Amino acid sequence: MLDLRYVVGNLDEVRRKLARRGGQVDLAPIAALAAERRDLLVAVEGLRQQQNQANDEMRKLARSPDALAEARTRLRLVADSIKEKDARLKLVEEALEEQLAGLPNLPSDSVPDGTSAEQNVVVRSWGVKPAFDFVPKEHADLGEALGILDFDRAAKISGARFAVYFGAAARLERALIAFMLDLHTSRGYREVLPPFLVNRASYVGTGQFPKFEPDVFAVKDHDLFLVSTAEIPVTNLRRDEILDAAELPVRYAAYSPCFRSEAGSYGKDTRGLIRQHQFQKVELVKLCRPESSYEEHEGLLADAEEVLRRLGLHYRVSLLCAGDMGFGAAKCYDLEVWLPGQGAYREISSVSNFEDFQARRAKIRYRPAKDEGKGDKPRLVHTLNGSGLAVGRTVVALLENGQKADGSIDLPEVLWPYLGGLRRIEKS
Length: 428
Known about the structure:
The chain has 2 domains: 4-101, Helix Hairpins, CATH 1.10.287.40; 117-425, BirA Bifunctional Protein, domain 2 (2-Layer Sandwich). It contains 12 helices and 18 strands. It has helices spanning 4-9, 11-19, 28-60, 65-101, 139-146, 151-157, 167-186, 200-205, 231-235, 293-311, 357-362, 391-402; strands at 121-126, 149-150, 164-165, 190-192, 197-199, 218-219, 224-226, 241-244, 250-259, 278-288, 315-319, 331-339, 344-353, 364-367, 379-380, 382-390, 409-410, 424-425.
């Protein structure tokens, strides 16, 4: 959520920055509500002073019944006016909260202009595309032929956009989760296994609600929601807390299943593992000082890249343009892995810096150390997260990049210890 004082004090700048995301944003309602709120606060403060003065007068008039009755009448009128204005102030503040909750984050000045993925900028690439002396197949065909992926039985028990993993595929998914967590914890992240059901406040705290509530699976009659990413429970671990400066940066790595309705994606990636209602992911989350968040952002990107490098998968890094970024991001990189069966790069991780956008919603602050020269007033942290990686899409990449002419799949050496020595997936 954006800072109200900043928005009202810099309306033209905020309009300009939000326009970079595409389209015009009407900030007039926020400005009007903020002005009314300011006037109400001034009026209530003045009335409270009158109330205090009337109370003092009543004490002095204790022996004058007529004057005392008149003072009580004035006091009652003041109290009624305070009650009326407080009620209006509550409505205005709720309306302001709703308006601010609908505004996306301001893009960083380092983010390129653009309105779609075509304007994203490729920053670098790693590795080379594998060469085949045959026409490579897509992962769904490979998995079904090997008997390790079954989409028809998944549809029978759950519906479209689900998959059943058998045998080597199930073991590969499990191995990847363990490999990713081992790698990230060796690089300074603390492992977390969070709840997979969260309350509404958690979704609001990370910026998904109210805008993206239609994309989330809700548990009827409990006001609980299945997580769409571990970012939500992990970031909210520190909601409403004031951290010690010495604790920063906080780095978490968490596995979770993820559940998404994929509203609005009908007709896209309907076959295979790319766009599922249920998938698994290892997520990286950071909380840090504002001054170091962009350095931490680059470090988070490098940590996600390291997974792909150790798996030997060719990929590229794209810096997203302002119009293609997620709602809460100030800056975002996508890691896009090469899928030879599809002949295309596909996103396997988004690595985002939210600055204080989430922290303001979730009230995550830290108290500066005395030697920082910033006083002891708590400050908002900056939050960052990124997939490290999306496990199902990593399976896709390994199947398509490791395929052989006979339909078998060679697996990277780094995973052999996690697979009980399994080096190749063959039809059994």
